[in-house]
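seq as requested:
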Amino acid sequence: NVKLPAGCILQTVSTTKTDTFSNASSSLVDITGMTVTITPKYSTSKILIRANLNWGGVNNIYSGIRLLRGSTAISLNTSASGNQIAASIGCGGDNNNFEYKQEHTGLEFLDSPATTSATTYKLQQQSTGGPGTNTWYLNRPDNTANDTYIVHGTSTITAMEISQ
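struct tokens:
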């Protein structure tokens, strides 16, 4: 029960997703396996959320990713209007053989949940653009031919309690 100085990491919880996820919906969908739950020791603590995503999709894919605490979107853009998508981060692919590639997108956000109750953070994704299905994939490219240039990856979401 010793109170550590501000800035110390009190605990770390992490989830690594080693399988794949796909979504072709323009509606927000939970990314299965990209959830982490942490129970802060102090209500004054901040929670540092880090997410690293390896993703692919069809040519000309666009994707919005949202970070949520429980059911509340956090770190959300406030300037989007009209048909624009308000997201925590955005990612997209080009038109030149993109379906064979995987990209990396990272997110970092320092949250102040003001609680000592179990707190769940998760990621949601929505797809736009692209020809036909608009399919976005986590941890794999669109094309999964049996060739040495086809790379599958892993993705993580981590929560760290920081003393204040």
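The CA atoms of residues 71 and 121 lie 9 Å apart.
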